[in-house]
Structure to design on (166 residues):
C-alpha cells in the first residue's frame, strides 16, 4: 500500500472529513473508486471505503467516504492514514516519486560520503524535506533540485549536494 495522506478532522455534520495530502497531486485521487484507511502507516490492517466525493475546499481537501454518514462517523476516522495499492495509482512522471519509494534509500553526497538513509519525509508547505538518519545523527534536507542532484530508486541511492558536517 502507498500512503497518500491522512484524515485530519470531521467537516460538517454529514460525514465529510478533512484530508491532508502527503505529497503532490491529490486531485488524481478522485479517480480511485475506493480508498483504504488504517491507523498505522506501516503494516496497518487497511479497511476499504468507497469514495463518494473528494474536492478542494479553500486551501484544504475534503472527502465523503461510503458508510460514513454523520459527524460521529467522521470523528472516528480522525488520524487515520489514507492509502491505495500501487496498481491503482497513476504512474509517476520522470523525476517524480512516491514517498514510500524514497524511504530506505541510501543518501550520499557529491564527495561520495555516506550521510545515512531516508527515514521519512516531512511536508512543510514550501517543499518536502528528507529526514536522513545515520545512527544518532539526523539531517533534514530540503527535497529541492538545489540539494537533491539525483535519485536512483532501482539502485537504492540519492545523491545530494550536502556536507557531511552540516
Amino acid at each position: 500500500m502507498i500512503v497518500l495522506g491522512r484524515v485530519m478532522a470531521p467537516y460538517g455534520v454529514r460525514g465529510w472529513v478533512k484530508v491532508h495530502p502527503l505529497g503532490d497531486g491529490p486531485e488524481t485521487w478522485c479517480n480511485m473508486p475506493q480508498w483504504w484507511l488504517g491507523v498505522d502507516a506501516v503494516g496497518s490492517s487497511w479497511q476499504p471505503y468507497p469514495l463518494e466525493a473528494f474536492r478542494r475546499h479553500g486551501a484544504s481537501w475534503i472527502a465523503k467516504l461510503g458508510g460514513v454518514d454523520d459527524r460521529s462517523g467522521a470523528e472516528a476516522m480522525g488520524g487515520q492514514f489514507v492509502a491505495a495499492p500501487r496498481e491503482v495509482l497513476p504512474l509517476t512522471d520522470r523525476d517524480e516519486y512516491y514517498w514510500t519509494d524514497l524511504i530506505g534509500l541510501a543518501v550520499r553526497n557529491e564527495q561520495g560520503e555516506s550521510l545515512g538513509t531516508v527515514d521519512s519525509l516531512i511536508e512543510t508547505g514550501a517543499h518536502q524535506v528528507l529526514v536522513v538518519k545515520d545512527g544518532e545523527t539526523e539531517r533534514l534536507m530540503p527535497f529541492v533540485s538545489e540539494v537533491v542532484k539525483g535519485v536512483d530508486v532501482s539502485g537504492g541511492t540519492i545523491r545530494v549536494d550536502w556536507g557531511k558536517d552540516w
In short: The longest strand covers residues 47-57. The mean pLDDT is 91.
